[in-house]
Amino acid sequence: MITTQAAVIRENGGQFAIEDVNLDDPGFGEVLVRNIATGVCHSDMFVQAGMVDMPRVLGHEGAGVIEAVGPGVTTLTPGDKVIMGFNSCGMCGPCLSGRPFACESFLLLNMFGRRLDGSTNITAADGSAVSGNYFGQSSFARHSVANVRNVVKLPDNTPDKLHRILGPFGCGLSTGAGTVINALQVRPATSIVVFGGGGVGLAGAMAALASGATTVIVVDINDDRLKLAQTLGATHTFNGADADLKEKIIAATGGGAHYAMDTTGNMKVVRMSNDILRIGGTTALVGLSVPGTPVELDHMGMLDGRNIIGVVEGAAVPQVFIPQLIALYHAGKFPFDKMVKEYPFEDINKAFHDSEVGTTIKGVVVF
Description:
Elements: E1 2-9, E2 17-23, E3 30-39, H1 42-50, E4 56-57, E5 62-69, E6 81-84, H2 93-96, H3 106-109, E7 122-124, E8 129-130, E9 143-147, E10 151-153, H4 160-163, H5 172-184, E11 191-195, H6 199-210, E12 215-220, H7 223-231, E13 236-239, H8 245-252, E14 257-262, H9 267-275, E15 277-285, H10 299-303, E16 307-310, H11 318-330, E17 340-344, H12 348-357, E18 362-366
Parallel strand pairs: 11-12, 11-14, 12-13, 14-15, 15-16, 17-18
Antiparallel strand pairs: 1-2, 1-4, 2-7, 3-5, 3-9, 3-18, 5-6, 6-10, 7-8
Helix pairs in contact: 5-6
């Protein structure tokens, strides 16, 4: 067991407090990571707002260095530079079929922050339980215990400055890019509309451009985000409050988009994302909403061949897909660094505030 510092949240909608906590030594198939930085993701804000049933340590876009390995670990060694993504069991049908994003224990291992046996690995200084293992890492802390299945090893020569901002590849950026590349399988000379110009949406737009899409539209109600989308290569941007939004999109895509992606979780936007498709087009739903939220779709519009799919974690295998995204970055086709802003660990609450109000696209907390 080691003592480290973590940002602990103790009530729904509450602020993070940096506290000394005790972290278990890595068990079988686990590693101890000294975190250097962690991205701020919308999923963290979603949990912060309404899923705090006990003291929790969030954070699931960690970047760091292996300090120790547990029994059974043969592919990672102390000193390895890594980033951390989502966890999976490795034993269920989807995992064994190469689809860890569809793991039957996904909620337990990620959103609920537990090991398969239901245990957690963090206690407060007074010995009381703290929920750790969030996405197999709880990386809003100076150290994390992670599973080998959610750790991606980086090349040894990865510059520290780059390593520090690669954490968001573990969730937000791979979710956006993977939705386009893996789930929608966007083809060259096609059109796509991305609803929501945050980190996930802009990652999707960049991936669409890298895939050869020739009409890439970003929709948001924040004009600064739309300007950034243009800088990143979007061919069109529209303000979501425009009364003629549907007509403008259909005109810009020559009769309707081949693909759409909703990152907002807003049901009116979900409906719009399906309405602007051409016959045979597909909408991918990525944004979170409150469980049980109903959505209305045009039944006749669906009958004529429009499709809608849900996507988790970009339908990606982290150890395969994240190196591909890094290669796209080095090739100049995925300039994610243009939307990153770094914050010292002590300013984690400011990082959350700025991300929530939209003044920061992709915040990264640095230790």
